[in-house]
From TrEMBL:
Listed InterPro entries: PS_Dcarbxylase, PSD-A
Pathway: Phospholipid metabolism; phosphatidylethanolamine biosynthesis; phosphatidylethanolamine from CDP-diacylglycerol: step 2/2
Enzyme class: lyase
Role, per record: Catalyzes the formation of phosphatidylethanolamine (PtdEtn) from phosphatidylserine (PtdSer).
A biological-process GO annotation: phosphatidylethanolamine biosynthetic process
Subunit architecture: Heterodimer of a large membrane-associated beta subunit and a small pyruvoyl-containing alpha subunit.
Modification note: Is synthesized initially as an inactive proenzyme. Formation of the active enzyme involves a self-maturation process in which the active site pyruvoyl group is generated from an internal serine residue via an autocatalytic post-translational modification. Two non-identical subunits are generated from the proenzyme in this reaction, and the pyruvate is formed at the N-terminus of the alpha chain, which is derived from the carboxyl end of the proenzyme.
Name the record gives this protein: Phosphatidylserine decarboxylase proenzyme
Cofactor: pyruvate
Compartments reported by the entry: Cell membrane
Organism listed in the record: Candidatus Sphingobacterium stercoripullorum
Gene field: psd
Length: 217
């Protein structure tokens, strides 16, 4: 289990807060019950930040016919929808909600070339809001595989997660299961797939990024 690089600043700030709190308690000679409160609070803050930014190693089984899950979380949407930003036609949408307790690493669902990338500033509606996919801060990334099939993936910021990070750009060649980004403190990732894709997951199912097979393309 590794600690993700996106958490370095947050970890430093938490450690600084802990040192200041512990120093103040020692300097002013606080009551024993208050010292215990500060100890417990310090432990809680440290454990929480380590939990948020954990980055477990994953054994990725690549298959050009499958769509790997891009994030840890729970499937909250499986539906046919109109995708107007890039495809401008009907697509199968599969959405994964990432809670604050999930691993927040985002992974490529297929291997291929980044055919399109765009960052959209926006609102911070709760991730399960119907308009979060189009109104919230988000990125839209289209991957094109060797057979010419395209998958659009969208990182969506939520009410709590206001920091989207990505490591790819148009023209990059990427591998299935590799990390392409990170959403701090959770939120949501949407996939827009060809209508003839075979979906292997169900609403409410817990999924693992880079491991769970969303379907076949």
């Amino acid at each position: 289990m590794k600690f993700h690089k996106e958490g370095y600043v947050s970890l430093f700030l938490v450690l600084l807060i802990i040192v200041i709190l512990q120093g103040l308690v020692a300097y002013f000679g606080a009551a024993e019950w208050f010292r215990w409160f500060i100890h417990i609070l310090s432990a809680f803050l440290l454990i929480t930040i380590l939990q948020f930014f954990r980055s477990p190693s994953r054994d990725i089984q690549r298959d050009e016919k499958t769509i790997l899950c891009p994030a840890d979380g729970k499937v909250v949407v499986i539906e046919e929808t109109q995708e107007n930003e890039y495809f401008k036609d009907k697509r199968l949408q599969v959405s994964i909600f990432m809670s604050p307790t999930n691993v927040h690493v985002n992974r490529n669902p297929i291997s291929g070339v980044v055919n399109y990338f765009k960052y959209h500033p926006g609102k911070y509606l709760v991730a399960w809001h119907p308009k979060s996919s189009t109104d919230n801060e988000r990125t839209s990334i289209v991957l094109k595989d060797a057979q010419g099939k395209e998958v659009l993936m969208r990182q969506i910021a939520g009410a709590m997660a206001r920091r989207i990070v990505w490591y790819i750009k148009e023209g990059d060649r990427v591998e299935q299961g590799e990390e392409f980004g990170f959403i701090k403190f959770g939120s949501r990732v949407d996939l827009f797939l060809p209508l003839d894709s075979q979906i292997n997951v169900n609403i409410g199912q817990k999924v693992i990024g880079g491991k769970t097979i969303i379907g076949k393309i």
